[in-house]
Amino acid sequence: MDRLSTLEIFRKVVDRNGFSAAARDLGLSNASVSKAIKELEAQLGAQLIVRTTRSLHLTDVGQAYYQRVGGVLDALDDADELVRSETATPRGRLRLAAPLSLGLVALQEALLSFCKTYPDILLDLHMSDAVVDVVGEGFDAAIRGGNLPDSSLKARKLMSLDRVVVASPDYLARSVELKRPEDLSRHDALIYSGAEHSETCILKRDGEAVQVQLRPRLRVNSSIAVKSAAVEGLGIAVTPHVYVRQALEEGALVQLLPDWSIEGRALYVVYPEQREVSRKLRVLLDHLAETFRER
Fold this sequence. Notes:
The chain has 295 residues and is an alpha/beta fold. It has 3 domains: 1-83, Arc Repressor Mutant, subunit A (Orthogonal Bundle); 85-161 and 265-295, D-Maltodextrin-Binding Protein, domain 2 (3-Layer(aba) Sandwich), CATH 3.40.190.10; 163-263, D-Maltodextrin-Binding Protein, domain 2 (3-Layer(aba) Sandwich), CATH 3.40.190.290. It has helices spanning 3-16, 19-26, 30-44, 60-83, 100-117, 169-173, 223-231, 241-250, 279-293; strands at 49-51, 56-58, 92-98, 121-127, 141-145, 154-161, 163-167, 188-192, 200-205, 208-213, 215-220, 236-240, 254-256, 261-262, 265-271. Strand 1 and strand 2 form a beta hairpin.
């Protein structure tokens, strides 16, 4: 069996978490798949997969090898796609990382409509509020909110993330009055810990700017958890409007200091420059941009 076919078998075994499932997908026998993996491990002189009767998992070196192999196979797919006609249907595997909280409230509709529009693209979606290494972990692109650090990644802005100050009626009824930005420092604050400078915020109005140091009551790396804590009356939250829109409409939360604007953030999709030649990535970028432009 040639080396490329062996690598494709290896990735399929890992992706499907089993030899039998990989064999079915590839139209091979279980014995052929098992033999290919054994020969690959013998050639490399290292065990890649630990197999038991009920499960399998990658060794540390196997995990590193899987990520590199995935990048190589994806690059070959991209090279093949580059020479195809631009009118051909985009197809292939597209690995995308997205924040879990934002994915649940703002991205689901856009990504599901993308899957319906491009049925020949396998969208491999990794949702986590942790920041991933796009290049090192073999992703085609990642969706990120906030201020982007300097990097070699290219970025395309999808939408602004307007932030608001909110609290529940119950919390406000038993807390000190809040009329000015400076009053925020006297209140319990619910902090999203995944952002830089999360315990300070700058509010502006009519040329006046006030920087406030918040007093943390809770720190959590999920904006949905911040919203839930605010609804339960644990304190105030400075959060993107998209997370609390429904709670505001239902009266579960109240917007505070509405005449003041808060230093904004934005939502971006970032990707390695060399990936831009991939048509499947270009159609995803265009689809996301169009979806968020209509909102």
